[in-house]
Structure formats: structure tokens, C-alpha cells
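tool_call: predict_structure(chain=1)
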Amino acid sequence: MSQYDLVIIGTGPGGYVCAIKAAQLGLKTAVVEKNATLGGTCLNIGCIPSKALLHASEMFEEAGHGLEKIGVKVSKPKLDLPAMMKHKSDVVDANVGGVAFLMKKNKIDVHTGTGKVLAQGKVEVTAEDGAATVLETRNIVIATGSEVMPLPGVEIDEKQIVSSTGALELEKVPGKLVVVGGGVIGLELGSVWNRLGSKVTVVEFMDKILGPMDGDVSKNFQRMLKKQGMEFKLSSKVTGVEKKGKGLAVTVEPAKGGDKEVLEADIVLVAIGRRPYTEGLGLDTAGVALDERGRVQIDAHYKTNVDGIYAIGDVVAGPMLAHKAEDEGVALAEILSGQAGHVNYNVIPGVVYTQPEVASVGKTEEELKAAGIAYKTGKFNFSANGRARAMNKTDGFAKVLADARTDEVLGVHILGFGAGEMIHEAAVLMEFGGSSEDLARTCHAHPTMSEAVKEAALGAFFKTIHS
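tool_result:
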């Protein structure tokens, strides 16, 4: 008999959630984590700390520019960056501590060290002191997540040229920050430092920010960020970063070629994406196949080409989102327990936690056009929403895309305050195959921001009431 039913390498959202679900279903489970704390990139150096700084910087901005408009007079706020960073660290500690508690609660063995697949049913764990232990198991799950995508010719030192990790640890507000990449990570962290006083310039290779997001959302969102003080150089690429005195010289060229220009920067943030982390896992020796992008290849049940070895999360195909990894972890644990685990990849929301927020679920207009699907659109601006007016949060809109023939909702896109919370009624609706009429006829409390989502559905179904 094997020592374990399941050994999971990696304790990010996918790994630790898979472990908890497996243990709840009666499987003897262990996790392997190379870092001193559990939770992976998301809890330690990604989702959680960035949201702590986003919230704190939003409060700083609100105190400095937003309160007087509603009759609250305060003196000019002073930034205490060390205290703000302590808040971030406290939030991280609470979250990783919570995961450690859940491991104990569910009787999951935690092995600290670097995991390596020796063969089917065997995982070697090498501790920091070099001591190695071999775990025997019926099943192995690769949940090692992703790492920062490097920019060719630019060396990240996490001091002046930083990844998202270094951008969360800056000891002072940079005078000039150049962000390489106009995706979610670059815009979120760029907006943090912009609010705290940096002059932020975003250099993006594509002709729009938030690449795969709905074009209507992207265009309007960029305009809002520009109004907040961020500058953008689209269809551009960074070809070099050199140290110049105490600062940096960033060479930027048009993506299609042309005259270069040099930007001055105190800090450069490289945020051009992430790539699957498979280094040192022994997958080649074990015979586990990877695709052309270095992702672990799996079938519909998360199984690799080697019996007993599975993979989930950022290390496999699909959006690199913590909640996608979590759902895959639950589905796989159910499958290994003899149940019918399943993830609906058509209904995975994505959120950009800036201010205003951007939230999306389902298809964009561009995707529907490319697929030749006839659709109808309903759109409602928050400027016509009573609650939004009351809170001075009138930027943005909600948009509903529905099948022109069946009225089934195919996509919902929200740009506005609290969009990340509002998107979930759309996700629930779409999970059950609901129509824009279903959403439009669902009574919404007044006054709420969510009424804009209902109005957008009304617009897709027939006509909006309040615009």
C-alpha cells in the first residue's frame, strides 16, 4: 500500500484547495512546498499583497482628493509608506497562517522542501539542508503555478529593475516609474504607485491595454487611467534598460520598427506576463509531456500522459487565475474520489482591481464577431445610476452581450466601482444558461450599483428604463 493517496507539489490556491477537498473526501493527502510559507505566489507575493496596497493607496487618494467633494474636510494626508507596507505584510501573514491552520484541521501532511517526481508514485522532497525524503503515493498532482516572464536583454535585480515581487517591496515612492506591459499586473501596480505620487508611463506592445479584454472596456478604461495621470505608449516595445547615474534609461521603439526614444526612470517594472513553473520537477525523467509553451499537457480529467500524474492551475493551459486553479483543484479531488468533477471554462470571471475596477465573464464582442455569432448588446452607464451618483462613483458602465436568436447571455463586462463584486450575478446566470430577459426581470434592490447590470440586461432584451 502507498503511504499516501495523493501528494500535491505546490500549495498555491490550486494546490492547497485540491488538498483540502481531497482530505474532506477521505483521501490521505500530503502537500510539498519549497517555500517557508504556504499559499504560493498568490498569497505571498501576488494577489493578496497587491490588493492590500491597492486598497491602501485608494484610501490615500480618496483622503487627498475625494472627501472634500462630499463635505468632509481633512488636512492633506501624509504617506507613511513603512506603515502601509506593514499593513500589506500583516494581511499576507494572516492569509498564509490561515492556510497552515486548514492543513492541520484537515489532517494534511506538509513537507517543506523542493518536490521532484522520481517516477510514477514517487515524489522526492529535498529540504533546505539537502536532506531528501521519498514519498510514496497513488497519485501525484503538479500544482507549481507560474513565474515572472523575463524581458529579453533586461536583467531583473528587484531593486531598480523589478518584477511584481519587487514592485510590492519598494522602500520609497519612485519619482518616475516605467511599466513594461499593459496587462492586469502592470496596471494594478502602476496605479498603486501613481496614486502615491509616481509619474507612471506604461509601455505596451499591443495597440490596446488589457489585451484580451473587451475593446470597448479597454478604450474607456485607458482614458480613465490617463485622466488619473498615467501615460501610455501603445504599439511600442522596450529594447533596453541601462543604468544612468542613480536612475535608468529605457529605450523604447515602435513595435513595427521606427525611431527610438529614451525614457528616464527611477524604477522599471517588468510585467509582460507569466510562464509555467516546471523547473527541477523531474517531469522529463518521468516522461511527462509539455506543450510548445512549456505547459503540462493534460486531458479533460487533468491527467498527464503518465498514469497517476495530474496537473492543475497556471502550469496547464487556460487563464492564469487563482480561482480557475481552485476550481480545477476541487474538480480533480472529486474525480480522484470517484465523483464527476467539472469546471465550466466559459464562465470564469476576470477582474482588474484598479479604481475603477474592470470585471468580465464570458465572450467579448471581438470574440463573438470572430466566431460569426449574431449577438445583441445592452449597455448602461453608471452616470445614470442613483447609488453611483450618491457615492461620486459614476465612471464606467455595464454591458451585456446576448445571443441574437436565443437571448442566452454570452458575456458581461463591467467597468466601474465595485465591478469585481457585481460580476458574479452574471456568472451565476450564465452557469445556468440564463437569458438577458431572466436577468432583466430579476428584481434588484434600489438604490444599488447592481441596478446598472439589470438595466444593461434590459437593454439587450428590449429597452433600458433609466437611460
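agent: The chain has a mean pLDDT of 97. Proceeding to next step.
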